[in-house]
Amino acid sequence: MKRALALLILLGACAPPPPPDSYRDNTVPLSVTTRGALTALAGDWAVRGTYPNTASLDSVSFAPRGDEMIDVTIVQTGCEQECHILSGTWPARPIAQNRMRLLTDSASDPELWVIWMDEGVRTAIIVTPDGRNAFILDRRAQGGADRMEAARTVLEFNGYDISALQMR
What we know:
The chain has 2 helices and 9 strands, in the order H-E-E-E-E-E-E-E-E-H-E. It is of the alpha+beta class. An 8-stranded antiparallel β-barrel has the order 1-2-3-4-5-6-7-8. A hairpin with an 8-residue loop joins strand 5 (99-102) and strand 6 (111-117). The longest helix has 13 residues, at 2-14. It is globular and about 40 Å long.
């Protein structure tokens, strides 16, 4: 028993610390939904929940292309030159079920993971696995209080600090 406890403590100490601006405890396993596929995200989404570093995001759109790629359009307002994420459209390459990599001009292209979507594909949670970004998206800018609460619960279950989450 003492050996097992010592091993758990040692393994916990070996876990990499979260990035400085992460909202996620990366010692908690991160799940990806098996419901649907990336093509289910097609269309326009209102950003209903986000963290302070991306609070200027208004909407996200997904447009599947014929070459298995997906165009991801991010729209934000009230953001000057120091935006954490820039407005624009980028192609994304599927890398696994409900995971994609944005192809940007940055040194490291971010991955976007769909960790939850409701049965009717009205609400979805998209995150970056490093915990720096998490977005609750909804097909409508208002309503769906039960789905918003479910989304908060899913984020918390996946190690996100929901006390910093900004809901709209």
